[in-house]
Amino acid sequence: MITDLPSSRANKPVTGSTVALVSVGGRTRRKLNWSGWWFVGPFMAVFTLVFVAPLIYAIYLSLFRETLVGGNSFVGLANYATAMVDPKFWEAMLRVATFLLVQVPIMLGLAMFAALALDSARLRWVPFYRLSIFLPYAVPGVVAVMIWGYMYGSQFGLVADINRFFGLDLPSPLAENLIMVSIGNIVTWEFVGYNMLIFFSALKAVPMELYEAAEIDGAGPFRTIFSIKLPSIRGAIVIATIFSVIGSFQLFNEPSILQTIAPNSITTYFTPNLYAFNLSFAGSQFNYAAAIAIISGVITMVVAYLVQLGGEKKEDKA
Questions:
Q1: Over the stretch 151-191, which tens digit does the pLDDT of each residue have?
Q2: Which of the listed CATH numbers 1.25.40.10, 1.20.210.10, 3.30.300.30, 1.10.3720.10 matches domain 78-317?
Q3: Helix, strand or coil, per DSSP, at residue 175
Q4: Which residue in 174, 262, 266, 297 has a CA-CA distance of 20 to 30 Å to 145?
Q5: Among 290, 304, 258, 277, which Cα is nearest to 65's?
Q6: Whole-model pTM?
């Protein structure tokens, strides 16, 4: 005979396995019901295969070093110690940190402005503008970089055509002192629409009663924005900021593709990801590249957590 679970456990959500009480010969035994794993099992299998296993393997690789004598030998944390004093790695990390501090606020500010404009009742053809702003995100990243790389060309692209047509001598966007601005422009063009959609969806979830109360109190448009709309979508702002922080530390496609047309402006260690890639596939230093990747991942995780923590503290104060 199978008896029901106690009422205190019956209302809890079912995850993984459940426990049923089975009475056999006057004795009560516990019988596990694994039916829940049929639902979460496929996800866990894919998650383990594409995330957990590569992460464990990268950690394993980072603990070894390929030597001329003795082959692949265990060195413990020696690769991490080397990375901590590697000037190329920290120069790359400082570069993406600067990129994050400058580009992310600009991108999120433009996305917020677009979302607020679309959410206002004064703008016509909202679906058209929403699709137009979001469309660059639908362009594959590699294709987007190639398009902008062609336009940046001072010998063959849009900049060259403007110089020839107007008789100007505009500086090349691919010059060493402008390359970060050019990459920031590409990333902003790609992801403004994505973040705009996050903000716009959050704005649509704000209760209409708040707007009605603000209108009764005589609040103007700007007062409504700063007192109702922005506080109401603080969670969406934090999420978009975390995604942008992670994306900045993972910067790879843009410098990797532009390096072919601007080799003097983009070094092999321009970003941490590009540095690890070149160490692996150009220098065959797989073990050291794995250590670089692990350290970069930990730094990204810490910064993202601090951003989330800061967002939660502001929400608690509000």
A1: 998 788 888 888 888 888 888 899 999 999 999 999 999 99
A2: 1.10.3720.10
A3: coil
A4: 297
A5: 290
A6: 0.82
